[in-house]
Design a protein that fits this description.
Blueprint lengths: L4 E8 L4 E9 L2 E10 L4 H4 L1 H17 L8 E8 L7 H12 L5 E5 L2 H9 L4 E6 L3 E7 L2 E5 L12 H17 L6 H10 L3 H17 L2 H9 L3 H22 L8 E5 L6 H12 L4 E3 L5 H13 L1
Parallel strand pairs: 1-4, 4-5, 6-9, 9-10
Antiparallel strand pairs: 1-2, 2-3, 6-7, 7-8
C-alpha cells in the first residue's frame, strides 16, 4: 500500500503568488493543481492584504480538489517580505489557524524556493532578478541576503531598475539632456501615449509598472541602440557584483547559483555574458521550473 501524502508549496512575491497542491509517494511528487493569485509581499500590499491573498488562495486550491484541510501533511511558504517587521509570525499564525494540528508548516523568505530548485533542502544560493533583485545563500540552514534593499535604496539589475533607466533615457532624449534613443518611441508605443501624457501613469503605477518597461531595453539593444547597451551592461555589472559576493561565502567550492527571475529570460544578452565572466568559479544555472516547485521540494522534505 502506497503511503500518499498531500503537500502544498507557496511562492509569494511582489508581482504574483503561486500556490501548488501535490501528492508525494515513494519519492515521487505529482502536481494536483497549481494556481496563480495576486501579489502577497506585505511590504508592497500591506500585511492584511497579503494574509488575505494567501488565505483565499489556499482555500481556492484545496477546494478545487477532493481534499479537506485535514488531508494536508505539510505546507511550505516561501514568501517575499516575510522576514521583516514580524511578518513571519503573522503568516505562521495564519497556517496554525487554517490547518489541523497534524499538518507541518514552515515559512521562510521566497529565496528558499529558488535555492531549493538547485540545492534541494541543503545549503546553496540563488540570484533573483525580477521586479526586484537580490542574492541569497543558505549555510547551516540559515538564509542570508546580499542586496535586496528595495527600489528606493538599492535594486540594481532588477526589472524596476532597468525599467527606470529606460524611462530616464526616453525622457532625457526628448528634453535635450540625453542622446537620441529608439527607446523613446518604444515607450510611447507600449503606453499608447506621448511621453508627456504618460508620466502620470508612471508615478501612479509604482515599481511593478516601472519594471514592465525593462523588456524595452533588451529589444532596443538588439536594434543596436547605444543607450540601451549602456543600461544592459550596467545591469550585468551590478549582477556580477552580487555573484562575486555570493562566491565569497563558498570559498572552497564552486557554488551552483540558481538564476531566477524574468531578467534571465534574456539568456543571450544577460545570462551568457555573466557565465563568461564567472570563468568557471561559479556555475550559473537557470532552473527549468518555477520557484513554487522549490517550495514543494521543501514541503516534501517536511512530510517525509
Amino acid at each position: 500500500m502506497t503511503d500518499k501524502k498531500y503537500i502544498i508549496g507557496i511562492d509569494g512575491g511582489g508581482t504574483k503568488t503561486d500556490i501548488a497542491l501535490a501528492v508525494t509517494a515513494c519519492g515521487q511528487t505529482d502536481i494536483i493543481t497549481k494556481k496563480t493569485f495576486k501579489a502577497s509581499n506585505p511590504n508592497d500590499v500591506g500585511l492584511n492584504n497579503a494574509l488575505n491573498v494567501i488565505s483565499d488562495g489556499l482555500d481556492d486550491v484545496i477546494s478545487s480538489s477532493s481534499l479537506d484541510i485535514d488531508d494536508i501533511a505539510s505546507v511550505f511558504g516561501g514568501l517575499a517580505g516575510c522576514i521583516s517587521r514580524g511578518n513571519k509570525e503573522s503568516f505562521l499564525e495564519l497556517f496554525k489557524n487554517k490547518f489541523s494540528a497534524k499538518t507541518k508548516f514552515a515559512v521562510e523568505s521566497d529565496a528558499a524556493n529558488s535555492i531549493a530548485l538547485s540545492a534541494g533542502c541543503g545549503d546553496g544560493c540563488c540570484l533573483i532578478a525580477g521586479t526586484g533583485s537580490a542574492a541569497f545563500f543558505r549555510k547551516d540552514g540559515v538564509i542570508s541576503n546580499i542586496g535586496g534593499w528595495g527600489y528606493l535604496v538599492d535594486d540594481e539589475g532588477s526589472g524596476c531598475s532597468i525599467g527606470q533607466k529606460v524611462l530616464k533615457a526616453a525622457y532625457r532624449s526628448i528634453d535635450g539632456r540625453g542622446n537620441k534613443t529608439v527607446m523613446a518611441e518604444m515607450v510611447e508605443k507600449k503606453t499608447g501615449r506621448t511621453l508627456r501624457d504618460g508620466l502620470r501613469d508612471v508615478y501612479e503605477g509604482g515599481k511593478v509598472y516601472i519594471a514592465s518597461f525593462a523588456p524595452i531595453a533588451f529589444d532596443a539593444f538588439r536594434l543596436g541602440d547605444k543607450e540601451a547597451e549602456k543600461i544592459i551592461r550596467n545591469a550585468e555589472d551590478e549582477l556580477f557584483l552580487l555573484i562575486k559576493a555570493l562566491k565569497s561565502h563558498f570559498e572552497d567550492t564552486v557554488p551552483v547559483i540558481s538564476m531566477c527571475g524574468g531578467m534571465f529570460k534574456e539568456e543571450d544578452i544577460l545570462l551568457e555574458p555573466l557565465r563568461r565572466r564567472c570563468n568557471g568559479e561559479a556555475e550559473l544555472v537557470k532552473p527549468d521550473k518555477a520557484p513554487v516547485y522549490g517550495a514543494l521540494t521543501r514541503a516534501q522534505g517536511m512530510a517525509e
